[in-house]
Write a structure and sequence with these properties.
The chain is of the alpha/beta class and 402 residues long. 40% of the residues lie in helices and 20% in strands.
Amino acid sequence: MATGPGSRALVVDLIRSSGPISRVELVKSTGLTQPTISNIVRRLIEDGVVRETGDTVATRGKPRSLLVINSHAAYGVGIHLATDALTCVVTDTRGGTVGRLLVAAPPAEDPGAVTEALAGLYRDVVAGLGLPARGIAGLAVVGPGPVDVAQGSFLTLPDRSPAPGPALAPALAAALGVPVLVDSDASAATVGEFWGRQVSRARTFGCLYMNSGIGSGVVLDGALHRGASSNAGKLGHTAVVRGGRECPCGNRGCLEQYAAPRVLVERARVLPGLARRLRIAEGDPVDRAFDVLARAALYGDGAARALLDESAELLAEAAVTLTNLWDLDTLVLAGPGFAVAGSLYVSAIRERLAASAFTREVHEVAVDLSSNPRDAAAIGGAALVLQGSVAPGHGPRVPGRE
């Protein structure tokens, strides 16, 4: 049916990425009929998702009103579950951040405390911003996978991570009275970068995400490619060393075992004098220790720079693989692992793609750093629920919003 969810999602996506845009332009861009576009736009305006700007385009006939996404139509809430912290971000419909709060993570061994902490953080942020319940599209809790999106739970998490119990999404939905999703941090960051950057659905868009692990995501025709169980894009578990180190995933020689921040910090601690020189203590969290290591690399410490360069070269090889598999034209680096030395990784990846991408003679691949790499997953969580709510068909199904 022409006015079904797919058509609505298509129109919302075009207005999001191309607005201000007229109804006539929507007809030309979508191939839908003028009455169908008028119908969809009328409903979007009634729902508050789209508004007319008041501006018009002069034509020989009737002036054409221009349409844009209403940034206040709904708000999305995303919480990133990390080893030592919970980060909550609220965004408006266009992806602009309107609130942020970071708190210490609860004890990893108490699943009940984790769920309570997540609920408490949500309540504190929403109350602090004075957001009306009816204006909130939902909450997404994101973290390292694998995840069971259908059941709303994390299957496994890294050691020492706060581990909520099974069926986290239903438990939080019952406690908070809002739709709740659970998804991977890499998937969330991918959608967040795509949504917030107003990227056109015509782009083949990729995101390389690095935190405790290394993941990726790809957006095709405006929708995240999810795979059979919403666990696609685990780039960190592709083998880069034949018969190499054992990985918890069961494989050997995985990229994460050589290029992830945790591994680089471990290597820094055993290099003679490096950890002491940089004042990296044995008990420092990996995120904090890696920031110190990355900063030292940028400031000219030779040993630190050698570690970061090796990681960047491996990530560059992975970026070539990701680009060749999907024929990407855009790649964004996101995640706390890129927060300090992201420019170093961007340079290495740009250089490698220019030399080695299969399609380098056909088109360039734009490689950029996230404007907020540290909060990319939380921002992306908010984008997930917004996309699933205002553009159903492109985003995930948001429970309670069918």
